[in-house]
Structures are given as structure tokens and as C-alpha cells.
Design brief:
The complex is a heterodimer of chains A (481) and B (256). With 481 residues, chain A is of the alpha/beta class. Chain A has one domain (26-441). Chain A has helices at residues 35-44, 49-62, 103-111, 116-121, 141-145, 154-160, 162-168, 179-187, 428-436, 441-452, 454-457, 462-475, and strands spanning 26-28, 87-89, 125-131, 134-138, 150-153, 192-196, 205-211, 222-227, 232-240, 247-250, 253-258, 263-270, 282-293, 299-306, 311-314, 317-320, 326-335, 340-349, 355-364, 369-378, 386-395, 401-410, 416-425. In chain A, strands 5, 6, 8, 10, 11, 13, 15, 16, 18, 20 and 22 form an eleven-stranded mixed sheet that branches. A ten-stranded mixed sheet of chain A has the order 4-3-7-9-12-14-17-19-21-23. In chain A, a hairpin with a 2-residue loop joins β3 and β4 (134-138). Chain A starts with 25 loop residues before the first strand and ends in a 6-residue tail after the last helix. Chain B has one domain (2-255): Rossmann fold (3-Layer(aba) Sandwich), CATH 3.40.50.300. Chain B has a six-stranded mixed sheet, sandwiched between helices. The longest helix of chain B has 15 residues, at 95-109. Chain B has helices at residues 40-48, 72-77, 95-109, 117-130, 136-139, 148-162, 178-191, 231-239, 241-255, and strands at residues 2-11, 14-24, 29-33, 53-62, 65-66, 80-83, 90-94, 141-142, 166-170, 197-202, 215-220, 223-228. Chain B is 39% helix and 28% strand. With 256 residues, chain B is α/β, with parallel strands linked by helices. The chains are: A alpha/beta (481), B alpha/beta (256). The A-B interface holds A 1-7, 427-430, 432-441, 443, 447-448, 450-455 and B 46, 48-56, 68-73, 75-77, 81-82, 84, 87-88, 90-93, 98-99, 101-103, 105-106, 109, 141, 158, 162.
Chain lengths: 481, 256
């Protein structure tokens, strides 16, 4: 008789807002992977010899490696010969300014909520827009150049700043690092490059917006950010892809280098297509992100909001080499329907008085599986290192799962370690309480989840925080019946 | 305003309410008293629409409409407020944000303009005085780390802000010291109005020294056994619930 259907039920599918395809003529190379393909990619980009050699070394090494199986995720074997490793929208001439960029591409980004033109005029955010394998536009380039800041596509950096690329490429994630990073090193096509010179505080947020458009295409982008002594930069990254029935591979590498007294803040809102409610389709997001606090008093802070992708496999990490350096990791990972996430961080303490903070919030709904995997390693040299870790899991319904694998390795007895963890379920009592105050069941879930993530959201730049909250609400739509 | 006719309800397969009849008019304050386990809280939850409380027979009319087919949030938006016996905690959600969202959901439903943060703050500050609530509680997460008394005060504060048509207060007096009881009663009394009804669910007569009811009902084993004026509460306190049971046995003897 009672018709109040407030209990948490099977998660209905929600509409993925960014699932459209842009019909644009693309230049694609043959399917599959071999040395010829790598030479072709390198030639397309007109790369100097050192880049090609680096790619080939990576490829040869990759052939000796096996795909890692230790992560708590399950998927059918990937046929690496079945993918396209390069796809780029055909450009008549290389656009010199936004006015020359194909209007269809601009329109695509506008539909995604990244109006390249408007942003340039209104908000203080510089954007590098990466479409499939190439960067199609970078805004505010000239303005930043006045301060000596280099913000451009990786391809442009290889052409125009080969010395910087040569010096830092692979210095944090070597081409031998792991299966997916090595694959990326061999075939990566584009991404963003950013260099902040000594003593410069970057006056605006730098951001890259990644879009996978073409079918059967892997996206392998590479981002490199170098913050020179005493500099400061905040960087944002956003991602979406069309809805397709097949799974697409996204294997990116991000390297950050912070020199003495430099600070890098790196924020991600990852919203790749997660697959449909039966778990068909979606992006495999196998990403290696690592930062090196090379200098004294340097700081690298990762903040990620992971709501998309069929499978997420990523561990943004910090190597705390410089004395007094600081590493931070703030994460919200949400898995709904059949999504799987195995994510966390590594904090490697090498220098004296290094400090790290880990705050991880995992939310599982539907049949989603969410794993936190983290490692805190205190080396012998890391006198008085400190770590604080907090891992909280929130479950919606009774078909999802939360898993936590914290590893701690301490080789210096002066280290201070704190670890807190909790798992809770959204209570029907909580939802009813909100409903009784006039808030709908869905509004209640969204409010409770946002409250749960508050510690992480407050680390995001203002504008992003609002977006992240909305995204979380959308990602949970239908999670109460 | 509220009419309950032969209401039967069960929880986890067990019938708790065995035919409740009750009529509450606008402007009235009713007290429902009874020993533990008599069904008082069940009645309150059924009226608010808590899931898992299954109505098996009878009907409930609220402002002439069938209450039982309405969603819990719609009942709230139509003016029903339940003061919880055990208010829940919502970590990370500030009291202020929670209450503003609630108020605006209700205002929107009733065709009123939503309040912005500044207007809401002004309203909250003004109402806080009524229940002598500390402003610092507004910025803390909903009920998180609140003492028992603070939670109850927060419930009444919410009621004062949301201005319901029908307020059902479930054991709002339990766990309060005498000073807190006075303050909270003051808040409740300030809300008494011609067009507003209140149902106080309580175990003890004590509360009724401060909030004088128009009607008192005694609930026992899922039925209202005796109804009377405010003097009934005093009589009950004097004679205890055992007396009610004796009364019931007498009646049963007469009936059989």
C-alpha cells in the first residue's frame, strides 16, 4: 500500500551527454602496430631523429613485456593489432590562429561545454584541445609567451623546444616503466607541453581537453609539465568520448617535474564514455601519471574526479626527492553500472622531511567495482618523513563492491605514518530524512555523495568544483528507483 | 486537516497498528502518549511515508487528499513535518546548505520564489533566536557530532524555518534536560497558529507542562484506547500505563 519507493535499487542507465560523433574527414593510418607504423607516426609529425629512436626503443622493449594482470579489473584480452594508432582530422593547412580552425571542430568543443573562442574572451583559462591524435587548438598562447610560459601541443614542443623535451621526456616515467606507458612511449601522438620559467606564477589555469572521436582508435597522449625554480602552475584536464559499442583504449602518460620551490597542481575530471548499463562499450583508461618533486620545498598535488570509463587503471604518484617536498593525492572515483576502477597513488619518500597526504573517496553503485590501491614507501634517506592516508568507501545498493589495498613500506624509523579507512553504505534513514524535508530521493543521494566527497572537491579550482559536483549528480542518475 | 480511519500497518511482516482512528483539526495540538512499543513511532513514520512501513488497511486523509499515495518528499512539500526521534547525520553536508535546499524545494513546490544564500542566512539568523541555537551549528555538517540535545534543537529549528502545516514531533522531549525542554517548547509554542496543527508523540507527561495540548490520546498495542482533554495526561502520569491496561481489560470484559 505504501508507495514510497525510496529504497536503493538497480541502477538505471543514464544518458551520457557527450556521446555524439563529429562527422569530420579524418586521416587514419593502417590498422595494427609494427615498426613501420611507428616510423609513419613519427614521419607524420616530422619529428627529429632522437624522437624516432626513443619511440623505437620503447616499441622493442614493449615487445618483451606482458600486460599486467595484478589489478582488480576484468576484461577480455585486447588485440593490439586491431586498433588504429593514429587518427587526425584532416586540416587543409595548419591553423595559425583560432579563426583558421575548422568550424566543425570548434562546434564540437562548444557542444562539450568548452567553447574555445568564448573561453579565450571570458574565463581566465587557457585550453589545449586534443582531438583524437592531435592538438587542434591552443588558446592564450601568445599572452602566456610574454611571461616566458610555454604552453603548446606536444608536437609543437618537439619542433620548437626540442632541448627541453629531450631533457625531461621520460625523466619521470621512463619508456621501460610499464606495459601501457611503454606502449604509449612508442606510439603517442600528441598531448600538452608546458614549461613555467623560474619565478613565474602562471596567471591563469592551463587546461587540456581530450576528445576521442574516431572509432577503433586508441588515444595515446603524453603530457609533460616542467615547473622551474620558484614557479607555480595549476593545470586542468578533462576528457570525453562518443558512445560506441566497442571498447577503446586510452593509454596516456603524464610526467610532472617540479624544481626547487616550485608547485604544480594537477586536476583531472575524467568523464570518458563509461559503457552502457549492461557494461557494453566504454573506454579502457589505462594511464600512468607521475610527478617528481625534484627540488627542495617543491610540491605536487594531484586531484582527480574519475566518473567515466569502463575500466580505470591509474595511480597518479609522487616521487618526493627534494628535501621538504610535498606530495598530495585527492581522489574521487565513482563506478556505476558495470564500471570498474582500480586507482590510487604511490608516494615515494626519498628526501628528508618529505610529507605526503592521500585522501581517497570511492563510490560504488549498481554493479560497479571500486578498488583503492596505494603505496607509501619511505626510503632509508627520508629522515622524518610523514604520511597521512585516508580511504573512504561509500556503497549504494548491495550489488557493488569496494576494495582497499594499502601498501606501506618503511625503511626509516623516524617516519610518521597515519592511515584511516572507512566503508559505509548510504542509509535509507539518511535518504528518508532528506525526503522528509522535501528533498527528492535523487537529490538526497546526490547531496549525500557530494558531502562524502567534500574534502576532495575543495581541492579543485572553483569552476571545476561546481562542474564536478554536477557531474557526480548526473553519473548517479537512476541510482535510486 | 488530518483524518486517520481504521489504519492498519505492519513492519517486517508484523502488524503494529491495529486500526487507528484519529481526527486532527487545524489549530489543534494533539498529544499521543503510550508506553514503549505501543506503536507511537510507527504511526509517525507511516504518516511521513517511511518505506518498509506497509499500510494493510484503512485510509489517511490530509487536507482532504489521500495521503498514503503521496511520495515522502511530496508530503513534506505539502506541509507535513516529522521531528525525528533519532535525527540522522549527513557528513560533509552543512546544516545551512541542507536546510536551504529543503526550504527551496518546498517553496518551489508551492509556487514561491527560491531564497538566495543571503536571504536564507537572514531568515536563519532570525529564527535561530527562537530556539536559542548557536550559529556555529549552522556551519557544521547535519547533526554530525551534535549532542542529543543539539540534535533535538536542530529538529525544532528546522521546523521553525520550514513552517509546516502539520508538525508531528516524535519524542522530541526525550533526552533533554529541563532548560532545553523549556527552550524547545518555547519554539513549538511560537508556531501554534489557527491554520497549523501539531501532533506530539511522547512517552512522558512532562512535555505537556510546557506545550499544553487540546487533546490527549493513549495508544496501546496499536490502538487508541482512550482520548480526552489535557487532564488525561495528568491522570495518566498519576496512575501509570498499568491503569490504561486495566481500563482496556474492563472494556474487553464488557465487550465479551
Amino acid at each position: 500500500m505504501s508507495t514510497a519507493p525510496s529504497h536503493i535499487q538497480e541502477l538505471a542507465n543514464r544518458e551520457y551527454k557527450y556521446g555524439f560523433v563529429t562527422e569530420i574527414e579524418a586521416e587514419t593510418i593502417p590498422r595494427g602496430l609494427n615498426e613501420g607504423i611507428i616510423r609513419l607516426i613519427s614521419a607524420k609529425k616530422d619529428e627529429p631523429e632522437f624522437m624516432l629512436e626513443w619511440r623505437l626503443r620503447a616499441y622493442r622493449h614493449w615487445l618483451t613485456m606482458e600486460e599486467p594482470k595484478w589489478a582488480n579489473v576484468h576484461y577480455p584480452p585486447i588485440n593490439y593489432q586491431d586498433s588504429f594508432y593514429y587518427s587526425a582530422p584532416k586540416l587543409k593547412t595548419k591553423p595559425k590562429s583560432l579563426d583558421e580552425v575548422d568550424p566543425q571542430l570548434l562546434e564540437t568543443y562548444e557542444k562539450l561545454g568548452i567553447p574555445l573562442r568564448e573561453r579565450e574572451l571570458l574565463a581566465g583559462v587557457a585550453v589545449d584541445a586534443v582531438f583524437d591524435s592531435i592538438s587542434v587548438a591552443t588558446t592564450f598562447k601568445e599572452k602566456l609567451a610574454q611571461l616566458g610560459i610555454i604552453f603548446c601541443s606536444f608536437s609543437d614542443a618537439v619542433q620548437n623546444h626540442p632541448d627541453l623535451v629531450r631533457q625531461y621526456l621520460g625523466s619521470v616515467v621512463p619508456y621501460t616503466d610499464n606495459f601501457f606507458a611503454t606502449l604509449n612511449s612508442a606510439v603517442f601522438s600528441d598531448g600538452s607541453f608546458c614549461y613555467i620559467p623560474k619565478g613565474v606564477r602562471c596567471p591563469m589555469e592551463l587546461s587540456t581537453y581530450f576528445r576521442i572521436n574516431a572509432a577503433s582508435t586508441g588515444q595515446f597522449e603524453r603530457t609533460l609539465i616542467v615547473a622551474d625554480e620558484g614557479s607555480h602552475v595549476s593545470y586542468l584536464e578533462g576528457c570525453t568520448a562518443p558512445m560506441r559499442d566497442e571498447n577503446q583504449l586510452h593509454a596516456a602518460v603524464v610526467e610532472l617535474v617540479a624544481l626547487d620551490n616550485a608547485t604544480i597542481k594537477y586536476s583531472t575530471v575524467q568523464n570518458w564514455y563509461p559503457g552502457n548499463k549492461e557494461g557494453k562499450g566504454g573506454i579502457y583508461n589505462f594511464v600512468t601519471k607521475r610527478g617528481k618533486c625534484k627540488g627542495v620545498n617543491s610540491k605536487i598535488s594531484w586531484t582527480q574526479v574519475e566518473t567515466g570509463s569502463a575500466i580505470t587503471w591509474k595511480y597518479p604518484s609522487c616521487i618526493l626527492q627534494g628535501e621538504n617536498s610535498i606530495g598530495e593525492f585527492y581522489s574521487v572515483a565513482l563506478t556505476n553500472n558495470y564500471q570498474q576502477a582500480d586507482t590510487g597513488t604511490k608516494m615515494i619518500h626519498i628526501g628528508k622531511n618529505t610529507r605526503s597526504t592521500i585522501v581517497s573517496k570511492g563510490i560504488s553503485a549498481g554493479h560497479g567495482q571500486n578498488t583503492y590501491r596505494g603505496m607509501v614507501k619511505i626510503m632509508k634517506t627520508a629522515e622524518k618523513a610523514r604520511n597521512y592516508s585516508r580511504c573512504d568507501s561509500l556503497l549504494l545498493g548491495d550489488r557493488c563492491g569496494a576494495h582497499t589495498f594499502p601498501y606501506i613500506e618503511v625503511r626509516n624509523s623516524t617516519a610518521q605514518m597515519e592511515h584511516e579507512a572507512s566503508t559505509s553504505k548510504i542509509g535509507e534513514d539518511q535518504i528518508f530524512y532528506c525526503q522528509q524535508r522535501g528533498i527528492s530521493a535523487e537529490g538526497a543521494v546526490s547531496m549525500i555523495v557530494n558531502g562524502f566527497c567534500k574534502e576532495v572537491f575543495k581541492e579543485l579550482p572553483m569552476e571545476f568544483a561546481v562542474e564536478a559536483q554536477k557531474l557526480l549528480g548526473v553519473s548517479l542518475e537512476g541510482s535510486v528507483g | 486537516m488530518l483524518e486517520i480511519i481504521n489504519l492498519h500497518a505492519r513492519v517486517e511482516g508484523r502488524e503494529i497498528l491495529h486500526g487507528i482512528n484519529l481526527k486532527v483539526n487545524a489549530g489543534e495540538v494533539h498529544a499521543i502518549m503510550g508506553p514503549n512499543g505501543s506503536g507511537k513511532s510507527t504511526l509517525a513514520k507511516v504518516l511521513a511515508g517511511r518505506e518498509g512501513y506497509e499500510v494493510t488497511d484503512g485510509e489517511v486523509l490530509y487536507q482532504g487528499k489521500n495521503l498514503l499515495t503521496m511520495l515522502p518528499e511530496d508530503r513534506a512539500r505539502e506541509g507535513i513535518f516529522l521531528g525525528f526521534q533519532y535525527p540522522v547525520e549527513i557528513p560533509g553536508v552543512s546544516n545551512m546548505y541542507f536546510l536551504k535546499t529543503a526550504l527551496n524545494a518546498i517553496r518551489k513546490h508551492n509556487g514561491l520564489e527560491e531564497l538566495d544564500a543571503m536571504d536564507f542566512l537572514a531568515l536563519a539568523r532570525q529564527k535561530m533566536k527562537l530556539v536559542e541555537m548557536d550559529e556555529s551549528l549552522m556551519n557544521r555538517a547535519v547533526n554530525e557530532g551534535f549532542s542529543g540535545g543539539e540534535k533535538k534543537r536542530n529538529e525544532v529549528f528546522q521546523m521553525v524555518i520550514l513552517e509546516p502545516r502539520l508538525a508531528i514531533l516524535d519524542e522530541t522531549d526525550s533526552g533533554l534536560d529541563i532548560d532545553a525542554l523549556k527552550i524547545i517548547s518555547g519554539g513549538v509554542n511560537a508556531l501554534r497558529r489557527e491554520d497549523r496543527a501539531m501532533v506530539l508523540v511522547t512517552h512522558y507527561q512532562r512535555l505537556l507542562n510546557y506545550i499544553v495540548p487540546d487533546k490527549v490520546h493513549v495508544l496501546l498495542d496499536g490502538q487508541i484506547l482512550i482520548s480526552g482533554e489535557k487532564e488525561l495526561a495528568l491522570e495518566l502520569e498519576e496512575k501509570g500505563y498499568g491503569w490504561v491496561e486495566e481500563e482496556r481489560e474492563k472494556r474487553q470484559a464488557v465487550n465479551s
